[in-house]
Write a structure and sequence with these properties.
The chain has 15 helices and 22 strands. With about 400 residues, the chain is of the alpha/beta class. It has two domains: about 170 residues, Rossmann fold, CATH 3.40.50.1950; about 210 residues, 3-Layer(aba) Sandwich (Rossmann fold).
Length: about 400
Amino acid sequence: MTSLTNKRILLAVTGSIAAYKSADLTRRLREAGAQVRVLMTNGGQEFITPMTLQAVSGNPVYTTLMDVEAESGMGHIELARWADLLLIAPASADCLARLVQGRGDDLLGAVSLACEAPTAVAPAMNQAMWADAATQSNVNTLVERDIYLLGPAEGEQACGEVGSGRMLEPTELVTECSRLFATGSLAGKKVIITAGPTREALDPMRFISNRSSGRMGYAVAEACVEAGAEVTLISGPVCLQTPERVTRVDVESAADMLEAVNEQIINSDIFIAAAAVADYRPLEVAAQKLKKQTQSLSFELEQTTDIVASVAQLKDAPFTVGFAAETNDLEKHALGKLQAKSLDMIAANQIGQAEDGSAIGFENEKNALSVYWQGGKKEFSLMQKSKLARQLVELIAERVAR
């Protein structure tokens, strides 16, 4: 298992002879489950062609900051937002110096300034260039700025000299990138997560449900695994693969989900209720398919048990996180639920339809969250749900630790 499954890695290739390894690195990142996009500096293109990296990545290669077509949509900003990790490999001495200076006059410089995801550099240069005081000062500055340093390795170099300055091998870089996503912030914790919709039967064929895709809950489960937790995912009907190292329990109705939660919640440390559980279910379920006989049809509904509230009221309740999807008055409704259900935290998001007609919250790979707890609040802007989940889990880990 590797924690690069579904990770978005933006690989930047700069001017070093080690650029010839970038094709193999791209291939191995994809084999590890990552989605890879490549950008190249002018120096990088002197050693390997964009066509080669386009072929192995399966995506267009980005080379120019002032690309009229790309920049009409602020292409460098979109690249920066897309990435879960900016990996610069190889990173030349010139590249390290430009990063320290904060240069934004080429594509890599602009992307690195705009990228809020972690950045890692894999230096590759002559051993004397690596040992030079200026390079070492630049490296120290980058490390102080929380940029990850991957390597370099020691050995024979292209120039024939021997020493430190070789880029790590592609397999080593894949391993190091995997470790960057393994935070360990929930190590030893048992986490129960609910995800997806529930289905409340009307008859053997029909049911009441909602638009939840389950993506957010599944992303949270994956992020909890990366953080070192033992994760059980209680899932309504969705079309998603089970994240690796996650125990999945499939359920159909709100009653099924409640039963599964009650079975799993014993000795758990954290409960994250990301599922969109039905608030009501039909009072009676027809034994046979309902036939179309009248112009109108009505059903009497009854309330379902509020699962997250029932967990929060347990004598030895785990740290309990609720979710709230709202069409209006987001903060008012979220804070009301936080208080009424005695939750430790609630993550609220707006649902509905954006100006471009796309769905907000449900049926979308992106989301934004407003997270509330007693005396505190944090906003997460619109981003990929995978990235959002990791940031939410780190916040949960911080609150649990307190």
